[in-house]
Design brief:
The chain is mainly α. 73% of the residues lie in helices and 1% in strands. Helix 9 crosses helix 11 (258-279) and helix 25 (533-551) crosses helix 27. It starts with 25 loop residues before the first helix and ends with a helix.
């Protein structure tokens, strides 16, 4: 009801009558009416709503219906639909889901009074507005009727009506902000996924809104923002995968546009970015970065990759690069695929369906094959590492009997797992055989090695290395990341141990003794174990060596021991070389001990008993002469090296030679007898064999001589028969025959007569007689002689042992040379008062020198080189002394040098070489002096070169080039013309030993320089009328042009060039010289022909003469 009395105070100025008594003016009445209308609207709105209706509606919204008057059945139906959608979201990741998460709406938003009234009115809002307007109008009519006339009544009615309408409009605006708050308060404590589009529309229709997301997008976006903030995992918590689908579902229920929802994502990003700046903490900064990365992933998955690039400009707003965005997407997607694979167990079980599902999920979250492969490889390696670690724990467990079957079974599972990975490698990126490298078990090499050893040991317990075991070992080698050499060594060690066990069992059981061929048994064992035969041979040799060491503990071998060793050798198929090596190493140690003792006593204390002791030791251990000689050689070389070492530490050459002489004495007195003890049998056998060979050779020679004698006798008989036939044919000439017989001596005539009387039938008798005579002569001349056996004189010292393999050739020849000088110079004797005197040279030292050469192992050529070098040094010293005064080689000096040469047995060529070198050195010194004074000429160089001086060594290249330049300049300016230029370009270069290319380049440079200067000089001389000088310059110009014809001269005054040519022609130059000068001056043929005609006519006159005549 309206107040009974209205008292309105006005601030009207005087003279402005707004009020008449207690009656207010019309404007004041309108204001008052408006105030009354607002109060009346509020009262009417409060009166229009039933008591308690607003509280009931809010309670209903909080309960879950979110729409006034919703029944329980409707609420259950809507809840079932929400749970169904939540189940679909949960299917994205099986492990986790949105259920059980706290609601983002944990508080109520306070409403203003008008907002509360709008929420309370609901659908009666319009009727309430009509009541308010009608009430205000009625109020205006009532007040106007009481305070004024009809005009006032109309005005108040209209004014209060307008005020009421304005008040209703103002109250109606509050529904835009009241509706989202009502929705927020209705969702308090509830899961946002349980809300439906119908629920949201019901709230909107309650406030008269058809679509809340379009009429109040900012307020609805705030609801989406709150839910988005709760979905971003905090800290290290990973993204679960269902978040994008949940956001899309919630956005769809709210009816929110993508652009408005994108603004919420950007705002959340700004909020995280501001937190990094405000907190200024490293941990908080890192946490905010991680949350921002998760926001980027969730946002991209929510809107889709293409739409997110347009709606979410991360690069522009937050100044992040594309690489950072890609990294954010990769990290979250990698965590999702890892979570998915762990949940389904696809990696551990390698189930085809699970792998196919994982492949689809990978495509769904847009994870690249490279990134997925990295995750898959890490997970498969983890599976492998876990199993291997379990096998290691089982293998390292302490038990009574070491049983590695359980650990080996796990390793076989790992191998089978790797095989399966290889088979299905294309099902998912990254699937493939794995190794432990880089994993948790990768650095435990000792455990891996032990597992590998145990696996091989268990697999070869039966004495067989099967192909399956070999394949498994290869797989384990790759799995453990072992190198080829390491794995092969472990396999070899294990199979070696098994081979030893198999060999021991075969020997103990008698299988080798009863076998027809022990080699076949050993080969069978090796083939089963795939054991290398050479390693098996080494094992067998080691067993033989062990047996011999056991038998040699008593320092000798009996016949039974020898038989036992022969049996072991036969069973183990030990070759003779290995038997000999074992005998030398083991049995020879006893003999070597006796030899060391005998060699260590020295020359003076060496007695025959020591030799007998060594021979007894040799026989006791059954050493052959060759073995004994090998052992003796090693010990003697050590003794020789001791002498040589003592000689090297001596400061004086004579003392060194004396130590070497002690070694020679030691070789003669001690070493030689011991060597003969072990080589005598061989020498006797060699002598016998040589005697037999000599007998056989003499018998063969005798037989050959008899055959040759028989052939000669037959030839003589044939010749005699021919002679007899010829004489018988001549017998018809009696007179001639008798005269012939009268002229011959008596004996020969009788023989000839007898021969003439014989007929052809007596030829055989004659042949027989001749053969008999030849045989008699042969028997008389060559009586049987005893075969002569040539026996070389045995040297008084041994030559079998030397130190050629222990010292370099230079060291051995140096010691030999020092001792040779010692033999030549002789020894010194220290007399009274410390005076040293030269002793008379002992010629026997040269005998010891020869023995020293044999001990040092020098060949005859090496010895000869030492002697020759020493002779060269001696001859050079004598020659330098004779020729040192620099007066040259005279006849008397040459004769004296020949005597020195003959005494030293120096070849003529070497002597001449030494003399030439000495003289060339003197000449080289003279040349250096001439170079320093600048008086060296090419003639001196040629003379010294003929004397044997090596110019290339004596003179440096720069000095030789300077000398060449000097001679070239002299030759091109001496006025000799172009004759014999080859001596400059070839002979001079050869004499100085210069590089032809460099010399030619330098010569061209000199010729070009001189050519220009000579031209200028010729013109100058022309102008001075110096005819002879002009001719000289012309010849120099021709010489320079002959060396450098390519360079051209240019002169501005052609008449002067013509005058130069005319002067040269006038002075009797040859046609060849004229042609060359023409070419050098660049004149054509017509010009030169005219000039020659003028000169020939005697009409040529120098222009200078004419000018001079004019002057004077």
């Amino acid at each position: 009801p309206a107040p009974a009395n209205l008292h309105v105070r006005s601030r009207a100025q005087p003279g402005n009558p707004q009020f008449v008594g207690n009656v207010p003016s019309l404007p004041a009445a309108l204001v008052m009416a408006s105030s009354m209308a607002v109060s009346t609207v509020a009262a009417c709105v409060a009166a229009a709503a039933p008591r308690g209706q607003a509280g009931k509606q809010l309670s209903s919204a909080r309960g879950g219906g979110l729409s006034a008057g919703g029944s329980k059945a409707a609420r259950n139906k809507r809840r079932a639909r929400a749970l169904s959608r939540a189940a679909r979201v949960t299917a994205v990741v099986a492990a986790t889901g949105p259920e059980g998460r706290p609601s983002p709406y944990q508080f109520e938003k306070d409403m203003e009074p008008l907002e509360q009234q709008q929420s309370a009115l609901g659908g009666a809002r319009v009727a309430a507005y009509a009541v308010v307007v009608a009430s205000t109008m009625a109020l205006g009519a009532g007040v106007g009727g009481r305070v004024g006339g009809t005009a006032v009544k109309v005005v108040l009615t209209a004014g209060l009506g307008v005020a009421g309408a304005a008040a209703c409009a103002t109250a109606d605006k509050k529904r835009v902000s009241a509706a989202p708050k009502a929705l927020w308060n209705g969702m308090k404590g509830r899961d946002p996924l349980t809300i439906t589009k119908a629920d949201v529309d019901a709230i909107g229709s309650k406030f008269g809104m058809g679509d809340m997301s379009k009429q109040c997008p900012e307020a609805v976006t705030e609801l989406y923002d709150a839910y988005l903030m709760t979905l971003i995992p905090m800290g290290d918590d990973p993204v679960q995968g269902w978040e994008p689908e949940a956001l899309r579902s919630f956005r769809a229920q709210l009816g929110l546009e993508d652009s408005d929802a994108a603004n919420a994502h950007i705002e959340v990003g700004r909020r995280l970015f501001r937190r990094r700046i405000e907190l200024d903490d490293k941990d908080a900064d890192l946490e905010s970065r991680r949350e921002f990365q998760k926001l980027v992933f969730i946002s991209t998955r929510t809107f889709g990759e293409k739409q997110a690039k347009f709606l979410l400009p991360w690069n522009r707003i937050f100044r992040v690069s594309d690489a950072q965005v890609t990294l954010a997407l990769k990290d979250s997607a990698s965590n999702l695929i890892k979570t998915h694979l762990e949940g389904t167990g696809a990696i551990a079980s390698l189930d085809a369906a699970a792998l196919t599902q994982a492949k689809s999920y990978q495509a769904e979250i847009h994870l690249s094959d490279v990134d997925a492969a990295e995750i898959v490889r890490a997970m498969t390696q983890e599976v492998v590492s876990t199993k291997v670690e379990a096998a290691s724990v089982l293998a390292s467990a302490r038990t009574v009997n070491s049983d590695f079957s359980a650990a080996n079974a796990i390793l076989r599972e790992v191998l089978a797992y790797n095989t399966a990975l290889r088979a299905i490698g294309e099902a998912l990126p990254g699937l493939g055989p794995q190794t432990l490298h880089g994993g948790a078990f990768g650095d435990k090499t000792a455990e891996c090695t032990q597992l590998f050893k145990n696996f091989i040991a268990s697999g070869t317990e039966t004495g067989e290395f099967t192909p399956t075991l070999k394949e498994e070992c290869a797989g384990l080698k790759v799995l453990f990341g072992m190198g080829n050499k390491e794995a092969e060594q472990i396999v070899l060690d294990t199979t070696t141990r098994v081979y030893r066990e198999q060999l021991r069992d075969a020997v103990k059981s008698g299988a080798l003794d009863t076998a027809e061929s022990p080699a076949k048994v050993l080969q069978s064992i090796c083939e089963k174990l795939q054991f290398p035969p050479d390693i098996a041979a080494g094992v067998n040799a080691g067993n033989y060596r062990t047996k011999m060491s056991t038998l040699m503990e008593k320092k000798s071998l009996t016949d039974e021991d020898v038989d036992a060793l022969a049996r072991v050798r036969r069973l183990l198929c030990i070759p003779k070389s290995e038997v000999d090596a074992c005998t030398v190493d083991i049995c020879g140690a006893v003999y070597a001990s006796s030899v060391r003792y005998a060699l260590g006593v020295g020359v003076e204390a060496f007695v025959p008993e020591l030799r007998d002791r060594c021979k007894r030791a040799k026989d006791a251990v059954r050493l052959t002469d060759d073995m004994a000689l090998t052992i003796l050689s090693a010990e003697v070389k050590k003794a020789f090296m001791i002498y040589i070492k003592d000689a090297r530490v001596k400061p004086d050459k004579r003392d060194q030679s004396k130590e070497l002489r002690k070694m020679v004495y030691f070789n003669t007195a001690v070493v030689t007898p011991m060597v003969r003890d072990v080589t005598r049998a061989a020498a006797e056998d060699a002598a016998k064999e040589l005697a037999e060979l000599m007998k056989e050779a003499q018998a063969a020679a005798k037989k050959e001589e008899e055959e040759e004698a028989a052939a000669a006798a037959a030839a003589a008989a044939a010749a005699a028969a021919e002679a007899a036939a010829a004489k018988a044919a001549e017998a018809g000439a009696a007179g001639e025959g008798e005269a012939a017989l009268a002229e011959k001596p008596e004996g020969e005539a009788a023989a000839a007569a007898t021969a003439a009387e014989k007929t052809e039938g007596d030829v055989d008798v004659v042949v027989g007689e001749v053969v008999g005579e030849k045989k008699a002569e042969a028997e008389e001349e060559e009586k049987p002689k005893e075969p002569e056996v040539v026996v070389e004189e045995t040297p008084k010292y041994q030559k079998e042992i030397n130190v050629s393999a222990d010292l370099e050739v230079d060291q051995r020849t140096g010691m030999y040379q020092d001792y040779l000088m010692f033999c030549i110079q002789g020894d010194t004797i220290t007399g009274p008062m410390g005076i040293e005197m030269e002793a008379e040279r002992d010629q026997s030292e040269f005998v010891r020198l020869t023995q020293l050469g044999d001990i040092l192992g020098l060949t005859p050529m090496e010895v000869g080189m030492v002697h020759k070098g020493l002779a060269d040094k001696a001859y050079r010293a004598q020659a330098e002394q004779i020729l040192g005064d620099g007066r040259g080689l005279t006849k008397e000096r040459a004769e004296k040098l020949r005597e020195v040469q003959a005494s030293l047995s120096l070849p003529e060529a070497d002597a001449q070489r030494i003399i030439k070198g000495i003289t060339s050195q003197k000449t080289a010194k003279d040349m250096q002096a001439q170079v320093a004074m600048g008086t060296l000429t090419i003639a001196d160089v040629r003379r010294m070169k003929e004397e044997g001086v090596e110019i290339e060594i004596v003179l440096s290249p720069d000095k030789r080039m300077a000398l060449f330049r000097k001679n070239a300049e002299s030759r091109l300016t001496d006025g000799s013309g172009s004759s014999d230029l080859s001596a400059l370009s070839e002979t001079l270069v050869s004499d100085l030993g210069l590089d032809p290319v460099k010399a030619k380049s330098e010569l061209l440079k000199i010729a070009n320089d001189k050519k220009r200067s000579t031209m200028v000089m010729a013109v100058s001389e022309l102008r001075q009328k110096q005819v002879s000088a002009i001719v000289r310059s012309c010849k120099n110009l021709v010489a320079c042009h002959g060396v450098a014809p390519e360079s051209k001269l240019a002169w501005g005054v052609q008449e002067e060039l013509g005058d130069i040519y005319s002067v040269f022609a006038m002075e009797g130059a040859t046609d060849e010289e004229k042609a060359k000068l023409q070419e050098a001056l660049g004149l054509d043929d017509a010009t030169t022909a005219g000039l020659r005609e003028i000169v020939g006519a005697g009409k040529f006159q120098l222009k200078q003469d004419v000018a001079d005549e004019a002057i004077f």
